[in-house]
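Re: that backbone. Tokens:
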């Protein structure tokens, strides 16, 4: 397929005559074409990063080492403690095979000297790690983040900011994190943020469902008010509130998040606010929740309220859900196979692209699976919902494809 035939394919999809099977076959063709074109346009640095990522994915011990290092090395209270952790990981996993010869040598030297000179070696290791992850984790400091946000906006890409941080253990941390998100909303260069309820409220108890929902609502009101107060001025002079999206993490939070989201947005103060929520296709419950949210969104709009947005993802918490289930002897909350997850993703994709749902619920298709993205690109054309269905990808993961 050539570059110029992609618009032809979109036009053909818009004629609405393709069956789902034909759409799937065309999505494979489209994916091939996009892959070829995006690979051809890849810059040297992106190619090297992709190759390193590929080598890491084929090196299980190296991957485990890198994840553990990234997870722990930023946390220790002192360089000496960091050096201890670094040694512990090196002893357990060995120097990762996927690294280049020079990096393997540097890591071996780091291992040898970090115990003797932790104050010198550990900051070097931390800084190297920050450099390596800088394409996927942006620095939060204004001086570095702001120019990046402006560049992206110029390129027609809306940036959704997700403030990273460790697990929230108590209420003082929760308040601190809530304040960070509110501060981010006051930033004129940020108009879209994502936050999960477990990052802004520490006392989630499912046996006290009603009480927990009420307390989460208190936090949501603070965020939604900040979104309204810090509205952006559009080119036509009108004011548009900033966008707050509720991310999803653990299964236990799904119904709580959805309930607090719906109840808060039905309050007079927030009826005109557009806000979003994530649904994870790997949870069988998400499909039912999508139907409920669509029905509720329709009612809200009919009562004079604004639309909402649903972002569809597959779910990133599989390992933790497995551990949680095995600790209690429960069946795991997510589906047991990738094929089931992919099938549910398609089912939810179809539901979200139905014109009668897309009218009330803006739909965000979030994935890095090029086949799913291409299928969704063609489906939204076939269903005539191009303006209501958008695509979301993670910064730095596959920029050439995005
Ligand atoms: C913009 C954006 C926002 C995101 N926000 C969130 C969020 O709020 N919450 C969240 O949880 N995730 C979020 N994710 C991550 C997402 O859930 C996926 O983990 C990630 O996108 C990989 O899925 P894929 O479709 O890109 O790739 P694919 O390779 O097609 O799918 C990988 C996914 O399939 C599922 N899977 C794989 N193997 C199995 C198995 N054996 N059994 C069951 N399931 C399996 C898992 O969900 C896995 O993540 C986000 C992703 C993007 C791009």
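Recovered sequence:
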């Amino acid at each position: 397929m050539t570059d110029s035939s992609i618009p032809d394919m979109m036009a053909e999809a818009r004629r609405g005559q393709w069956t789902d099977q034909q759409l799937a076959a065309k999505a494979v063709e489209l994916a091939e074409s996009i892959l070829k074109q995006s690979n051809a346009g890849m810059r040297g640095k992106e190619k090297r990063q992709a190759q390193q990522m590929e080598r890491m994915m084929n090196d299980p011990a190296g991957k485990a080492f890198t994840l553990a290092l990234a997870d722990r090395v930023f946390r220790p209270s002192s360089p000496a403690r960091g050096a201890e952790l670094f040694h512990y990981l090196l002893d357990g996993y060995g120097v990762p095979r996927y690294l280049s010869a020079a990096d393997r040598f540097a890591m071996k030297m780091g291992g040898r000297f970090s115990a003797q000179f932790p104050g010198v070696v550990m900051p070097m290791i931390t800084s190297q790690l920050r450099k390596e992850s800088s394409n996927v984790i942006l620095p939060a400091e204004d001086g570095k983040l702001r120019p990046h946000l402006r560049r992206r906006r110029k390129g027609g890409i809306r940036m959704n900011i997700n403030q990273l941080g460790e697990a929230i253990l108590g209420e003082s941390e929760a308040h601190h994190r809530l304040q960070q998100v509110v501060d981010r909303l006051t930033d004129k260069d940020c108009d879209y943020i994502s936050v999960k309820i477990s990052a802004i409220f520490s006392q989630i108890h499912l046996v006290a469902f009603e009480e927990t929902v009420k307390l989460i609502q208190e936090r949501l009101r603070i965020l939604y008010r900040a979104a309204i107060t810090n509205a952006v001025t559009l080119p036509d002079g009108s004011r548009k509130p900033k966008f707050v999206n509720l991310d999803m993490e653990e299964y236990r939070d799904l119904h709580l998040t959805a309930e607090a989201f719906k109840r808060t947005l039905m309050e007079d103060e927030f009826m005109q606010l557009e806000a979003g929520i994530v649904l994870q296709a790997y949870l069988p419950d998400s499909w039912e929740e999508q139907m409920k949210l669509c029905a509720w969104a329709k009612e809200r709009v009919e009562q004079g309220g604004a639309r909402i947005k649903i972002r569809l993802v597959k779910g990133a918490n599989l390992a933790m859900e497995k551990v949680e289930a095995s600790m209690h002897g429960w069946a795991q909350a997510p589906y047991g196979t990738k094929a089931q997850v992919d099938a549910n993703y398609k089912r939810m994709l179809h539901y979200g692209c139905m014109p009668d749902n897309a009218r009330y619920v803006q739909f965000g298709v979030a994935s890095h699976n090029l086949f799913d993205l291409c299928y969704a690109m063609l489906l939204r054309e076939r269903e005539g919902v191009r303006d209501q269905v958008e695509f979301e990808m993670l910064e730095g993961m596959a920029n050439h494809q995005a």
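The first strand starts at residue 161 and ends at 162. The pocket of flavin-adenine dinucleotide is lined by residues 247-248, 278, 280, 282, 313-318, 334-338, 341, 366-369, 372, 392-394 (CB under 6 Å).
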